[in-house]
UniProtKB/TrEMBL annotation:
<keyword id="KW-0675">Receptor</keyword>
<feature type="binding site">
    <location>
        <begin position="190"/>
        <end position="194"/>
    </location>
    <ligand>
        <name>GTP</name>
    </ligand>
</feature>
<dbReference type="GO" id="GO:0005886">
    <property type="term" value="C:plasma membrane"/>
</dbReference>
<comment type="similarity">
    <text>Belongs to the GTP-binding SRP family. FtsY subfamily.</text>
</comment>
<protein>
    <recommendedName>
        <fullName>Signal recognition particle receptor FtsY</fullName>
        <ecNumber>3.6.5.4</ecNumber>
    </recommendedName>
</protein>
<feature type="binding site">
    <location>
        <begin position="252"/>
        <end position="255"/>
    </location>
    <ligand>
        <name>GTP</name>
    </ligand>
</feature>
<dbReference type="GO" id="GO:0006614">
    <property type="term" value="P:SRP-dependent cotranslational protein targeting to membrane"/>
</dbReference>
<dbReference type="GO" id="GO:0005525">
    <property type="term" value="F:GTP binding"/>
</dbReference>
<comment type="subunit">
    <text>Part of the signal recognition particle protein translocation system, which is composed of SRP and FtsY.</text>
</comment>
<keyword id="KW-1003">Cell membrane</keyword>
<keyword id="KW-0812">Transmembrane</keyword>
<keyword id="KW-0378">Hydrolase</keyword>
<dbReference type="GO" id="GO:0003924">
    <property type="term" value="F:GTPase activity"/>
</dbReference>
<keyword id="KW-1133">Transmembrane helix</keyword>
<dbReference type="GO" id="GO:0005737">
    <property type="term" value="C:cytoplasm"/>
</dbReference>
<keyword id="KW-0472">Membrane</keyword>
<feature type="domain" description="SRP54-type proteins GTP-binding">
    <location>
        <begin position="273"/>
        <end position="286"/>
    </location>
</feature>
Length: 300
């Protein structure tokens, strides 16, 4: 929590502290409420959620009458937590099925942090005493497989790779086959993030999924989203969500943005939970996402 607070220090400026100071104004007239709504939209909360949050807060303020700073903070806290939906299941399924490994597919646009997230997730699992195999299914860039190999060496997980230009699905197949042969707990497949056409993406990820299912099953498809890319990132997320059945979101680079509101927007639009957040480039900078901890961090 301390680390999350420190890492989110920059987010406090716009999103959390900005809202708190606006809500603390003596007179909350229409202009003030508009400004609060604008702040929420600027923080990437999304237009629909911003309007709802303002409506709910307005009603509460009306009912409440006098407002102490503590009351304002509690109201905002409750409202934000409700919008982040504390009841969503945020567990990442990495438990093997008998003698077959769990398989996690990591998808998303290049540069969002897929390979880094694959490495960090492997680190968490290996740290918990699990065995992990990594599949370098981004075969379009040799550098991507090199980068994953560096991570594999760092965290102690073998990396299955092929030559540049090889079929991504065949890499995924080999990684899962290795996982089955070696009685590994979890296989993580780092996929290519080429956002050519929706059908191209659908074909490619669909094929990876099908070959995995010849040997085991796909337990998670985690979409990696760069929190600093705002509405552009949201557009990319929609394309992926239409192309493949996403089970969770990893929001990376939350340490580098003042706009953590994207969490509310992406969950609302895609209907899947943010399960993990990236808070830096290092191996230990991946955290499970917890709505209350997050809201407390941006309001502290
Ligand atoms: P990929 O192309 O999607 O596989 O993206 P990479 O994993 O290569 O990451 C792209 C860049 O983002 C690298 O420089 C990473 O170190 C950096 N990166 C990834 N996750 C985070 C994060 O949570 N915070 C920060 N600050 N940088 C990150």
């Amino acid at each position: 929590l301390v680390r999350l607070r420190a890492r989110l220090a920059r987010s406090q400026s716009v999103f959390g502290q900005g809202l708190l100071s606006l809500l603390a104004a003596d007179k909350l007239d229409d202009d003030a409420w508009d400004e609060i709504e604008d702040t929420l939209i600027t923080a990437d909360v999304g237009v629909t959620s911003a309007a709802q949050i303002v409506d709910n807060l307005r009603t509460k303020v009306k009912v409440h009458g006098g407002r102490t700073p503590e009351e304002v903070r509690d109201m905002l806290r409750a409202e934000l937590i409700a919008h982040i939906d504390p009841d969503m299941d945020r567990g990442v399924r990495t438990e093997p099925h008998g003698d077959r490994p769990a398989v996690v597919m990591i998808v998303g646009v290049n540069g969002t942090g897929k390979t880094t997230t694959t490495g960090k997730l492997a680190r968490v699992l290996v740290g918990d005493g699990r065995s992990v195999v990594l599949g370098a299914a981004d075969t379009f860039r040799a550098a991507a497989a090199d980068q994953l190999e560096t991570w594999g060496g760092r965290v102690g997980a073998p990396v299955i790779r092929k030559d540049e230009g090889a079929d991504p699905a065949s890499v995924a197949f080999d990684a899962v086959a290795r996982g089955v042969d070696d009685h590994v707990d979890t296989v993580i497949v780092d996929t290519a993030g080429r956002l050519h056409t929706k059908t191209g993406l659908m074909d490619e990820l669909g094929k990876v999924k099908r070959v995995v299912e010849k040997k085991s099953q796909v337990d998670e498809v985690l979409l990696v989203l760069d929190a600093t890319t705002g509405q552009n990132g949201m557009r990319q997320a929609r394309v992926f969500a239409e192309a493949v059945n996403i089970t969770g979101i990893v929001l990376t680079k939350l340490d580098g943005t003042a706009k953590g509101g994207i969490i509310i927007q992406v969950q609302r639009e895609l209907g899947v939970p943010v399960k993990l957040v990236g808070l830096g480039e290092g191996p230990d900078d991946l955290a499970p996402f917890d709505p209350e901890t997050f809201v407390d961090a941006i309001l502290s």
